[in-house]
Every structure is written in C-alpha cells, then in structure tokens.
Amino acid sequence: MTHVLVLVGSLRAGSTNKQIAETAVLNAPEGVTLSVYDGIAHLPFYNEDIDVDGARPEAAVAFRSALSGADAVLVVTPEHNGTIPAVLKNAIDWASRPYGESQISGKPVAVIGSAFGQFGGVWAQDETRKSFGIAGANVLEDVKLAIPGSVVRFAEVHPKDDAEVVAQLAEVVSAVVASTRSVAA
Ligand SMILES: Cc1cc2nc3c(=O)[nH]c(=O)nc-3n(C[C@H](O)[C@H](O)[C@H](O)COP(=O)(O)O)c2cc1C
C-alpha cells in the first residue's frame, strides 16, 4: 500500500480545496490510500522555545507522526494575498524541524489547488514548492494543477462530479505514486 497524506491550505468548512482533496481520496487507485489531515489548524505558530522535549505541543507531535507514516504528501491549497495561506506555511515550518531530522526530508511533495483568481493560485503553489524544497522535501516540480475561479466553478458542482477535475486528479495521484516507487527503487 502507498499512503499519501493530503494537506489542505484552507480551514473553511465549505473549502473548495478541501472538496478537491476529498475528491482525490474518493478516487484513490487500487493499492493507494489518501487521507486528508485535518490537524494543521491546531498547530500553534512555530516557536523554537516550545519545540523541545516537555513543551512540544501534542498537535505538532501528531502532525510529525502523520508525516512519518506517509509515503508522500499532496498539498491542495488556495492563494492568500498572492502567496501561501498562513496556516499552511506554519505547517511547513513545523514539518521542517528538528533540523536534520525532519520527517519531510526526501519525501515526495506535490502541490495543486484552486483559487478564485484567473491563474488558480499559482503564486501560492510556487511558494509552497519553494518552501517545502528548502525544508528538504523531494518536490515534484512537474506535477501541476491550478484551477481558477474556485468559488464560482464549484458553486453548484462538487469537484467529485466534475469529470475534468476527476481526470486531472487521477494524473496527479498517479505521478505522486510513481514518485514513491522511484524513491523505493
Ligand atoms: C485572505 C484571502 C486572500 C485571498 N487572496 C487571493 C489571491 O491572492 N489570489 C486568488 O486567486 N484568490 C485569493 N483569495 C480568494 C481565494 O482564492 C478563494 O476564496 C478560494 O476559494 C479559497 O479557497 P477555499 O475555497 O478552499 O476556501 C483570497 C481569499 C482570502 C480569504
């Protein structure tokens, strides 16, 4: 089994990115599990003073454990003011430490998503790739999917009922899974 941890860069109950993430989960190919990690909202702002034994928040321990158990990470994010939503950036900071022992080190990470603007949040995606790369992840630079018009496109139709999105997600997940196999080989 290949396990892909899915992180969503929006906390909104009706998040279109969460719906896209759920669509990827629903259409997981055989031999692959995807799970949406819903704990990043509970991570406090990263602070080295609390990232020590005895003070480390339970949410951070749980997040690192989830990363450790994943073969790859799929990020589904909107764009906030031209860049990464703060909740996602904070999660990257927690993922990046302890320095030299990060659970994200060498792990395949793909970044996709939807935003309202005409480019679908490409700035946020590029910055997310850059940040995960600096954190030591194996960023899948060729895996790209930026869906514009988020709240309008998915106002009436859930992405799971949008054949184009379902097909695009199948390609994304296939590339993510292939990356884990090439790591193992
Ligand atoms: C604080 C904030 C900043 C935003 N900035 C951008 C932006 O820079 N570019 C963009 O395309 N959309 C921007 N949007 C609109 C979001 O892309 C849109 O609301 C998107 O659907 C949010 O993702 P969600 O549906 O998963 O919650 C912003 C929304 C918020 C709340």
What labels would you give this structure?
185 residues, 6 helices, single chain, alpha/beta, six-stranded parallel beta sheet, Rossmann fold
Major sheet attributes = 6 strands, parallel
Morphology call: globular
The CATH architecture = 3-Layer(aba) Sandwich
- Provide the CATH top-level class: Alpha Beta
Which structural class do the helices and strands define? alpha/beta
Gyration radius over CA: 16 Å
Look at the structure and give the mean pLDDT.
Answer: 97
Question: Using DSSP, what is the number of strands?
Answer: 6
CATH topology: Rossmann fold
Helix content: 25-40%
Tell me briefly what this model is.
The chain has 185 residues and is α/β, with parallel strands linked by helices.
Explain the overall architecture.
The chain is α/β, with parallel strands linked by helices and 185 residues long. It has a single domain, classed as Rossmann fold (3-Layer(aba) Sandwich). Strands 1, 2, 3, 4, 5 and 6 form a 6-stranded parallel beta sheet that branches. Helix 4 links the parallel strand 4 and strand 5. The longest helix has 22 residues. It is 38% helix and 16% strand.
